[in-house]
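WARN no homologs supplied; continuing
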Amino acid sequence: MRLLSDDLPYEIDNRYLGPPGRSLPFAIRYSAVAVGLVIFVVVLWVARRMGASGLAVVPLALAVAAGITTIAMRLVNHDRSVVALLIAFHRELHTPRRPRTVARADFGSATSRMPVRPLPPRRKGRAPHARRGRP
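OK structure emitted
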């Protein structure tokens, strides 16, 4: 009978260190490769939609995708997977929120939108600046 230890999440086998005989100066997680590929395709698609073209787009998209992947993978560890991070991001965007009350103010030719909170009800019988216990 073989017993599995609790150290499975900490195994180093989930990192790519480079080809045999030649190691990279950094370790790359296998999950980061998949996430980086998806982000690279999305960045290329956004660049094309913005009208960018030419040979400089691919290296620029690769650099942007590497940066975004590095930032995103800092949040991923053995306790929080990429899928859990995506679900949390989706729920944060689609959670129901209380609608804001917005009033319009007219300042000549320009109008601005300002959030307005209702004032608490005033107490009757004394001035708002009066203090209790003092003459």
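The radius of gyration is 28 Å.
OK
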